[in-house]
Amino acid sequence: MPNSSYQHKTIAVFGVSQDPSKYGYKIFHTLLQKGFKVVGLNPKGGDVDGHRLYATLTEVPGSVEVAIMVIPPAALLGAVEQCKAKGVREIWFQPGAQEDHAFVLATAAGIKAVNACFMAENGLW
To answer: Which strand ranges, in their side-by-side order, compose the sheet holding 51-54?
Structure first.
């Protein structure tokens, strides 16, 4: 059963990979398996487990409340800008996907920013 504070929110995972050994795949797959409403993003598009991967957040229909970053630090500023434009309220910067400027940009935009593993902090792993 999903964590009650996230079960009715749409979660976007940036950096979803088609490679099951990568964290982008593991996070996306686990959230789906646990019943979360989740969308995956990868600049190359494609699909994972029969779910479409969007190239950008602007392509995702409807609202997105939470974003999980599993992307290289160099890509974070652009991803945070996408989140600002989409009205995302909370961004989790996974270990390895953390960068000070992106964190500051998010908080300055009124977005709750967290430098921690979403999965571990919410008891999903």
So the answer is: 47-48, 51-54, 37-41, 10-14, 66-69, 90-93, 112-115
Question: What is the rounded distance in angstroms from the CA atom of residue 16 to the CA atom of residue 3?
Answer: 21
Q: How far is CA 99 from the centre of its chain?
A: 15
Per-residue pLDDT reduced to its tens digit, 11-46: 999 999 999 999 999 999 999 999 999 999 999 999
Amino acid (one-letter) located at 78:
G
Range of the domain at 82: 23-121
Residue 12: inside a domain: no
**How many domains does one find in the chain?**
1
3-state helix, strand, coil in the chain (%, to 5): 35, 20, 45
Instruction: State CA 85 to chain mean position distance.
Output: 15
Task: Note the pTM of the prediction, 2 decimals.
Answer: 0.96
- Report DSSP state, residue 43: T
Q: What is the distance, to the nearest Å, from the Cα of residue 8 to the centroid of all Cα atoms in its chain? A: 15
Question: Residue 102 maps to which CATH number?
Answer: 3.40.50.720
